[in-house]
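Box 3.1. Reading complex inputs
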Amino acid sequence: MSVATLSVTALLPLQSVGITPLEASLFVFVLITAVLTALFRDVLASIVVFAAYSLGLAVLYTFYRAPDVGLTEAAIGAGVTTVFLLLTIAKTTRPATDARFEAINWPAVGICGLFVLVVGVTLPAFPAVGDPASPILANADVTGYYLANAYDETGAENAVTAVLAAYRGFDTFGEAIVVFAAGIASLLVLGREVFTA
Amino acid sequence: MSSDRLDSTNDDTGVARQRPIYSESQVIMTTVKAVIPFVLTYGLFITFHGTSSPGGGFQGGALIASVVLMIAFAFGIESTRKWLSNTLVVVLATLGVAIFAGIALVPMLLGANFLEYTAYYPLLGDALGLKRYEFVKYGMEAVEIGGIAFIVAGVLMGLFFALAAGMTPTSETNTVGDDVGTNASDNTSDADDATDGGDRP
């Protein structure tokens, strides 16, 4: 398929790229909550909307058959991060003004718009959602190997865990060490006087 | 400055309201009591079934930590930290790293590669009655449960307690944390009023 046909396909109604109305409405929900997070003047409202944004993303990931990522987004993004942010603003004070929204910073909007434009230009190069001719399915060296052999070689029904803990176990070990090191460093910085273990 | 209450209005400094950090709420406490067993079970399920269903140590560990966060929100952060000591939280995370590193490094001692689970087969195969390929599955389970879940739960709980430190009025430790004290119940409400305002960092 030539680039021209692909770009035409991408501009057609959403059905042709494999996005159902439900997914489209989820996209809109995520987009609106993201914009509202930036716009709300009250930080508490921002945090609540941000949690809704994470929840929308989690549902979206689940729609795209990535329940592992969806679970992580729901637990970390919507749950724990919200709690941490709430704890942080509890130490701050509210601004006295009654304005509901932040004044819009137009230069920032321009830069964000440019960024969206640049990313949007690359969209036609992507295959449609679930397209069997997409490179990841048609030319699946690594993915295909995992899908074909993960169960026989590791006995794990969840291929994601097989990749994380067996095939790429060294990476996971590094990630775990990073989480541990970052956590311990934050504890040292945040709470010398209260967190004397 | 007449801000002797947390929610007092002070227009001079542009400060409108400060929210009280912890207020004992019957609704929240009851809800948390009802929800906690299910969340904890779900977290353990996700952790233990990482190899056969979506999820794993990271997600399960976060859920288990969120149980502690909910308890702290409902029953007071300071008393929860006393219940789960700081040492325990740090030891949990460190133990996770130690278990992960141990499982990963022992195969190297046996002459195999880093994290090569099947290297345990000649050692433990007969004792545990497992086949060679099953060592990969249970090795992954061990890493997920004993390694990642411990690290994530420990770090999240530690961060939570560190972030929340210094925000709880001292009166709360009198009412909830030190119930074993001799006469903690006679002047709790008075202490609440007296110490709320001056306790901010």
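In summary: Chain B has eight helices and no strands.
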